[in-house]
Amino acid sequence: MTGITAGSLALVGYFAPLIFLGIVGFAILGLSMLKTSKKALSWITFASLGISAIMLYFLFPSNTSVYDGTIVFNHFGLYFAIVMIISAMFITYPSMYGLKAKSEIFYATLIFVTIGMIVAAFSYNLITLFIAFESVSIGTYIMASFGKEQRNLEGTIKYFFTGTIATAFILFGASFFFIDTHTFNLSVISAAAPTPELTISLIFLIVGFGFKLAIFPMHQWAIDTYDGAENSVSAFLSAGSKVLAFVVVLKMFLVGFSSDFRDVYYLFAILAILTMTYGNVSALSQNNLKRLLAYSSVAQAGYLILVLAVVGSVGNVNSNVVAVAVAAGMFYAIAYIFMKGGAFITLNTVKGDNLQVSDLSGLAKKSPGVAVGFSIMLLALAGIPLTGGFFAKYLLFLSLIEGGLWWLAVIAILNSAISVFYYFRVILYMFGKEPLKEDAFNLGNTFKIPVYVSAFLTVAISILVIWFPTMIGFAPGLFR
């Protein structure tokens, strides 16, 4: 079926989940008048997100584009749309216990943020991407502000003002992009040599999205915000929100700047090295547990942008090496949600605020299951075998070697080795120290179950390796 009919069917399949989520979001706001419990709201949100993912999968029209390529429906976009829905589902239950009031606003905002993520997953127009991305940013400003402690509000204010600065850079970059290409469509780019306007646009957009992705040196907001926000919000910002930024960056710089791959390669290779190294070295000296995980998150962003260095280096988007690199990024994204998001969620089991690494002392004696689960997630972040994190890094480093960037692979491997030291330091406190206080942990099932689920998924996601060839088949969808 072609023409108008195919386009109409595409829009039905695309908008139905979005309309459904929108209705549920407003309904949740209305439930505030009925004084619905936080637990009921969390399960309504979880179920609604799950239903939207099922709708998206079964109503999905493959290989169709509408509005002159503004929205492109392919398996690459579908994959990331579902991954980002999963990232939102992942925090619905754990966040319930960090909400002191206005839980209906939190869950409705989470749903509206997910709508923006889905839109961004299929968008290939700079304006559409920008609006979708900013809608997510505004929603996460609200989510980060939940909690009345000074640290919550301070982190939110820094996040808001940094996000505003990033938005200005993105708009400047978009303006120069339009001046050079006379279009906001990322896939309609001249094959001619790069112009000064396009180079200026590249720099502005890297700075703008560098803030969003928290890559060095545009990262400091993330440290303060992750530290100040409620643990489940930190999990979402460091995992789901970062995956969204990663997808947008892939489209922006690998599709929109396909005529300037040489500059993309040099810039992202340098940024990846700086981000990995700074994040890991800074984490070594951290005693604050959330800031340690935040610096670890910065380092993980450095690993993610290695995909852009590989593609920029190879230059030929039809190359098998490029497909492997993009597919490795796809696998890394889903594994990252569980291991990094789960690590932040685990902090709910520790009582108190402004947590230090020493606060984990004796956790293994109080709850061996929680200690083992947290250790699994930390080992996955370090890339230790038999975890999803190991396979994610293995595939990513393999793409670097196949692309001829063996020296960059060596730097990335050395950085992974550095991370082992501070992750094992945390594990040592859990298993090798005595508890500081008798009643130091929240060890009810409501706190332990999310840890067990996160640890299980961190290992179970390794099974997806057998579908890696399928991901390689989806990867060219990035370039339409």
Give an overview of the whole structure:
With 480 residues, this protein is mainly α. The chain has one domain. The protein is built from 20 helices and two strands. The protein has a two-stranded antiparallel ribbon with strand order 1-2. The radius of gyration is 21 Å and the shape is globular. The model has no long low-confidence stretch (mean pLDDT 86).
Properties at a glance:
single chain; 480 residues; mainly alpha; two-stranded antiparallel sheet; 20 helices; 72% helix; globular
Q: Using only CA atoms, what is the Rg?
A: 21 Å
> Major sheet, described briefly?
2 strands, antiparallel
| Helix and strand sequence | HHEEHHHHHHHHHHHHHHHHHH
Beta-strand level of the residues, as a percent range?
under 5%
SS field, number of helical segments? 20
- Uncertain spans: none
N- and C-termini, Cα separation: 19 Å
User: In total, how many domains does the architecture comprise?
Assistant: 1
Number of strands: 2
Helix content: over 70%
Side-by-side strand order of the widest sheet: 1-2
What number is the mean pLDDT? 86
Give the overall shape, derived from the CA principal axes. globular
**Alpha-beta content class:** mainly alpha
